[in-house]
Amino acid sequence: MASEIAKLAALVLTNTVRVDDYLQKNGLPSPSFHEDGPVDLKLSAEIEAARVVALEASLRLNDLLRGPIELVRPTVNAVSLEAIYKYDIASKIPIHGEISVVELAKLCDICEPDLRRILRFAIIHHRIFQEPRKGIIAHSAASRRIVEDSATRDGLGLQFADGWQSFARTVEAMEKWKEQEPTKTGFALAHNTDKSVFEYLEESPAKAKRFAGAMSSFTTYKGHGPEFLVRGFPWASLGSKTVVDVGGSEGKYSIALAQSFPDLKFIIQDLPAVIRAVDAKRPVPSELVDRVTFMAHDMFKEQSVSADIYLYRWVFHDWPDAYVVKILRQLIPALKPGARVIINDTILPEPNTLSELQERKIRALDMVMLSFFNSRERERDDWERIFQEVDKRFRFVDAWVPEGSALGIIEAVWEAETVNGVNGVSEVNKAKEVIEFKEVDGVNEVSEMNKAKVVIEFKEVDVVNEISEMNKAKEVIEFKEVDGVNEINEVREVNGLSDRI
Ligand SMILES: C[S@@+](CC[C@H](N)C(=O)[O-])C[C@H]1O[C@@H](n2cnc3c(N)ncnc32)[C@H](O)[C@@H]1O
Asked: Is residue 317 flagged as an active site residue?
């Protein structure tokens, strides 16, 4: 019987041959480290699946052949990548040209022996640069990509200028603080700040710009492109609707959706520093400027746009659960019956159902979430529970992963019943709360109830503490058809509740 390594080798062979045949038949270039090597192999879906099988089998085969002693001695040194970013080394090497290490060291103002080892590490570990002759450096396909794609450069910067030091301080942060707070992270220690990543970026425009650029580089990662969001939800069935893309960054996903669905309008919201950086870039094609707009908005503040759909793409994995609940509660004052929340984020599958390659990627991202944000990736049940916690009037519709997508789609709909009396509602809104009144005949009945045991059913209350305060007092008043806010206020005053509401 064939051993595991023999089976893996056979898988690598058969599937690599399928990829190779496809490339040859279609006149496409073969993968190469050469600087003119293809960035995207342009495989059909079926052959892409063969590529993934070959890749996964080769990773496992590689680990088996290396054995346990080598596996616990991984190469995790990122000094080389950090230096490549910091000194912008790639852009100092001519495309289709060469430069000596001595000359390059002068251009970068680095001591030459240090540059030499930084380059040689990058060549052998990451296939970044080539050394065609001793002491002479040229581009590889990967280093050329760093020069030609600003989003790739931003991604490198995020990971190795901001990230690397944060990873190194994460266990220290775990030791120091036990709470899951976004301000108590490896990032906070590494950057000597008491702010969360996004608060920190608000004060560092250049870093905010780089973060937004890095986010857009993810669109080129397998399974992360806008096409999965475009195809993964029945947008066309919505009709003429407005979508607010909360934390939408440069708007890549809204722009793609607007291109495919001409009846939809998009408002992309993000923090002021991000919107300022985006304004300078003007990423919206001219034919879409009437339907795609940007707006500075802090999602921890009350939502001011009453829209049909609120999209959160890859936003919540940056936040611990309690913060996700807080963010979603900010929508409540703006929600009309039938409004939807659509989340495009990771849905962790059941254990052992992922391919090893997918699992490596998700676990790697989950570790970044820990170091940067104290947040995490979530399973389907986690998403369902979050909506229940936000407000019972959210109905969790479904969660699914579109074919080929790295992220899932989670849908919930706001199913509030209408509230009696316009004045009552606006009064209540002023007080930042909405109470649903049902069938109360008069104050007397209410005070009757007070005597017995007071029960208040709050639906759409903004602040959790207030609710738990009430719970602590074990008072629940059930209001049924109260005619006006005054009565309620009176009732509250009678019960000494008004200061707690
Ligand atoms: C991981 S990025 C995702 C960006 C984009 N949705 C995408 O899928 O590429 C998270 C986004 O949330 C934004 N963000 C963070 N805190 C925010 C806040 N308080 N209000 C609004 N946006 C915020 C960040 O600026 C960033 O653009």
From this structure: yes
